[in-house]
Design goal:
Length: 253
Amino acid sequence: MDLGLEGKRAIVTGGTRGIGRKTVELLLAEGCDVGFCARDRKQVDEAVGALSKSGRKVVGGAVDVTDGDALRAWVTKTAGALGGLDILVPNASALVEKADEAAWRLGLEVDVLGTVRAVEAALPFLEKSDAASIVGIASTAGVNIAGGVRAYTGHKAAIIAYMKSLCVAYGRKGIRANTVSPGAIYFDGGVWDRRKREQPAMYDAAMKRAPFGRLGKPEEVANAIVFLASPAASYISGTNLIIDGAVTSRIQY
């Protein structure tokens, strides 16, 4: 299938590792020019070096999404460097695991407001695109409660609701907005890699719950993100796509 992404311009936050990195790689492979950011300058520079071999334009930035002014300025500058913007994937997440006030504040700043700030900065550019799309990154934790109370659940539920409101508010301007909600995704250095080493009982329980007998891979989520972001999904807006290998027990209507 031709996704129609050749020559499109995309921005991904949290783009050096895991789902974000695979999303950047796939967008480049499909013919997009891509800007991405992360907090760690060394990781950004290493990623730019590797990804520039794609032959497409790659713009990297060391940005903390909790710094609203810096994030907005970076999105504006990067969209200018790309010659415009068609796709935004606000992927950065604090991945908070607790439910105390500090966890609520951190996740609000990174996951929720980091998404809102990126969207607000991107909208003037997206409104000029003929194939504008936003794909928010939530989690199955936002739709299916498993375990104890976590601030993360509230943060991800907020992103789903925010994307739904965007698709309604900006649909007549040609901007689509969708959400993907991954389940447990494993990659070296990621949360589930750490849990496998430090919390083996939690890791084993996740494996037992998984009908496929394994956890997900970042590229399996990236495939869905890139499809939803592409012109091939031109009549899909306001959806929340669960990507969890059938782990969640809720029935979707």
